[in-house]
Write a structure and sequence with these properties.
The complex is a heterodimer of chains A (about 375) and B (about 325).
Chain A lengths: L1 H25 L10 E6 L9 H16 L3 E6 L6 H12 L4 E4 L7 H6 L4 E5 L8 E6 L1 H15 L4 E6 L4 H17 L4 E6 L6 H13 L4 E5 L4 H8 L4 E5 L10 E7 L2 H12 L7 E4 L6 E3 L8 H15 L10 E2 L5 E3 L7 H4 L9 E2 L5
Helix pairs in contact in A: 2-9, 5-6, 5-10, 7-8
Chain B lengths: L4 H28 L7 H18 L4 H29 L4 H12 L4 H8 L17 H4 L4 H6 L3 H19 L1 H11 L1 H6 L4 H27 L11 H11 L4 H23 L7 H21 L1 H7 L15
Classes of the chains: A alpha/beta (about 375), B mainly alpha (about 325).
């Protein structure tokens, strides 16, 4: 019997050791005084995923660096949408966090917002607004379009592979923007999609890239969060366009460019507002103009001529003389979706459920 | 020929099934000696992170650093298995509780993530990775090219392991002794076989295999490290042992089947073949099949016929036998 008890004690010891490690591993910026303002970030993947969550983490670190000891920040990583998210919010609120940045689609629900009226929430990439819920994102479609131009110019065949996460409007409009960009520099090129149904899954992303390459794609692009597509691209010597963060180091030879985000300035503005009590619910849609999105530095495979073409298009987007989602736009079946002279609004972009002509794949995943 | 759906699927099945194969071979060794270890996922993650770390830190040629990395992965996961062995063999703790505790302790939110983040392994490309060793001409041979010559050395190593374990369990004295220990520890003990020693050795060896399985992810498949890189493969490996009726050669078939299943959804999409919500059933199938098998084996009669070691999960106490 004593041995049983000993064993039980040992198991408990192991579990408690694990929780200590866990606590150490996920709580940067140890708690000290309760008077400092506390802001938290919640990530759908690891904070160092080499993509989406890492870009947000860079934003959090920017806030911490700019405000120093006046603010205490933390993050929670690998949080799934749903019950796990609610639990995470509950524990953050209990620890006194007053501003929570929910950095993935579908995190904040009306129920959560209503449950914590004293806490301000910021939801990335969504559309739900309330008194204490702001929405923020930006026109990544513009820079994804420009990165598509780089892909089109690099394509020596007529198929570009694009690894995509979930069939939701955000990803659909990015896939469309990418295809439209590729068609500018490579008229008639097809963009083939493979859905992984996951934001972050390196093994699945690699497999998707492999399937696309086997199906004839000679350039690969992505709207998923890990650099696995790029690593595969380099192993078969085809060019690659990334997304979210500059991950050129994973495949320096294949890297062309990628649409990247700069979340820091927006985060800083919002944390400051919350600190001095001027925080108000809003809808922020950043752009190339305010530095929210940009193209990552080019890799060796982008020619000077392509760089110049992209630069002039970027100028045109900046001064408003060009917009990729302006008519005439046709869908996959050739049906006119946006007539000539019309531009898609942000609301329409947020509801986009059809793929443009030249994209091969289903908008339903 | 090599681009047909069937060949691509089997080739991917071999590549993606290899970590499942290594892990299930390890679990098979432990279970054949009567020790159930549910800590496979945790041990794989420790192997994955330690293997990747070693490969980044050992400044030698690719061959040497990769071999050292695989051994470090095996050793570190074996250390994890030793904790389990001590708890369940010496202290006779519940094998289920201890195994689960091991996965929690070492797994995605525990030791492996702590080590990986602390050693700054995320967001770092691998400096060397396993890739195909045969000339590309041979890799293009019809059928055998992608299936055999297009694989990494880890795949060939796993084939050797399958043959060696099959031979060991059926044709060698120690192998037969392990089976005796797993079937009837009291009888084995009476024959003068040390139950404790055999169970320790095979549980720890099983851990080493899990470590290699983890390293297969970080050094060959993805190849990078992120927290929770194995994504539940350890659990599928445990179910695989049951599917395979505790036989190594069937582990190979099962592992490749599940590996191919993972490749099915993207392959169909890239080939413009629509079979409805493919993702739904390919993703759910391993888990649904696992439930069916677990229900089957929990039925006593089936359990005996399927070949489960009779003393699986039961601690051996000499005085009580």
């Amino acid at each position: 019997m004593t041995q049983r008890k000993l064993a039980l004690a040992a198991v408990l010891l192991v579990i408690s050791a694990a929780s200590v490690v866990l606590a150490l591993g996920t709580s940067p910026g140890a708690a000290k005084s309760s008077s400092v303002f506390k802001a938290a970030w919640i990530y759908v993947g690891p904070h160092n995923d080499g993509g989406w969550s890492q870009a947000h983490e860079a934003g959090r670190q920017y806030v911490q660096k700019m405000l120093g000891s006046k603010v205490q920040t933390t993050y929670k990583e690998n949080i799934a949408v749903g019950a796990q998210f609610s639990q995470t919010v509950a524990s953050l609120v209990a620890q006194g966090y007053k501003l929570i940045f929910a950095t993935s689609y579908g995190y904040i629900t009306p129920a959560i917002a209503a449950k914590y009226p004293d806490v301000d929430f910021e939801q990335a990439t969504g559309t739900y607004q309330a008194k204490n819920v702001s929405e923020y994102f930006g026109a990544a479609e513009d820079t994804v379009f420009l990165s598509g131009m780089a892909a089109g110019a690099a394509a020596k065949c007529n198929t570009i592979g694009f690894v995509v996460a979930y069939p939701i409007p955000e990803v659909i409009r990015h896939a469309n923007a990418f295809a439209l960009g590729a068609q500018v520099t490579h008229p008639g090129v097809a963009v083939k999609l493979v859905w992984t149904n996951s934001w972050f899954d390196p093994a699945k992303e690699k497999k998707a890239a492999q399937s696309l390459h086997a199906a004839g794609a000679c350039v690969l692009g992505q709207n998923v969060d890990s650099p696995a597509t790029g690593q595969y691209a380099q192993s078969v010597h085809v060019p690659w366009v990334g997304y979210d963060s500059d991950s050129s180091k994973f495949a320096p030879k294949s890297w062309l460019t990628g649409s990247v985000y700069n979340w820091g300035p927006y985060y800083l503005k919002r944390v400051k507002a919350a600190m001095n009590g001027t925080w108000k619910s809003g809808f922020y849609y950043g752009s190339i103009n305010d530095g929210f999105t940009k193209l990552a530095p080019y890799g060796p495979g982008v020619s000077a001529a392509t760089k110049a073409t992209i630069a002039s298009k970027e100028k045109a987007i900046e001064n408003g003389s060009f917009y990729e989602f302006a008519g005439p736009l046709y869908d996959q079946s050739g049906k006119l979706r946006v007539p000539k002279g019309k531009k898609m609004t942000v609301n329409q972009l947020y509801a986009m459920s059809w793929l443009v002509k030249g994209v091969i794949g289903s908008p339903k995943g | 020929m090599n681009n047909t759906l069937l060949v691509t699927l089997i080739a991917s099945g071999v590549a993606y099934g290899t970590p499942l194969l290594f892990a299930s071979l390890g679990e098979l060794l432990a279970e054949r000696s009567g020790v159930l270890n549910l800590g496979v996922e945790g041990m794989m993650l420790v192997g994955a992170v330690m293997g990747f770390w070693t490969e980044q830190r050992v400044h030698a040629g690719p061959v040497v650093s990769l071999i050292v990395a695989v051994f470090v992965a095996a050793f570190s996961a074996a250390c994890m298995a030793a904790i389990h062995a001590f708890l369940v063999i010496t202290l006779r703790a519940s094998q289920i509780v201890s195994g689960l505790a091991l996965t929690i302790f070492a797994g995605a939110a525990g030791l492996s993530s702590y080590l990986g983040n602390d050693l700054n392994l995320a967001d770092v490309p691998a400096s060397h990775t396993f890739h195909a060793v045969f000339p590309s001409g041979m890799q293009n041979w019809p059928i055998v090219g992608p299936l055999v010559f297009g694989q990494t050395p880890l795949v060939y190593a796993s084939w050797v392991c399958v043959a060696a374990i099959a031979y060991y369990l059926t044709r060698t004295r120690p192998g037969l002794n392990v089976r005796a220990v797993g079937e009837s520890p009291a009888a084995a003990d009476a024959m003068g076989i040390s139950v404790t020693r055999y169970r320790y050795a095979h549980t720890i060896a099983g851990g080493a295999f899990a470590g290699v399985a983890g390293a297969t992810f970080t050094l060959a498949i993805t190849p990078q490290w992120v927290s929770g890189i194995t994504g539940g493969a350890g659990w599928i490996a445990i179910a695989l042992v049951i599917f395979a009726f505790w036989r190594p050669e069937l582990c190979l078939v099962g592992a490749y089947f599940f590996g191919a299943l993972q490749a099915l959804a993207p392959e169909l999409q890239a080939r413009n073949i629509s079979l409805g919500p493919t993702e739904l059933w390919t993703n759910a199938m391993p888990y649904a099949a696992t439930i069916v098998v677990l229900v089957l084996v929990s039925w006593r009669g089936a359990r005996r016929r399927l070949g489960a070691p009779a003393a699986l999960g039961v601690a051996y106490v000499r005085e009580e036998a």
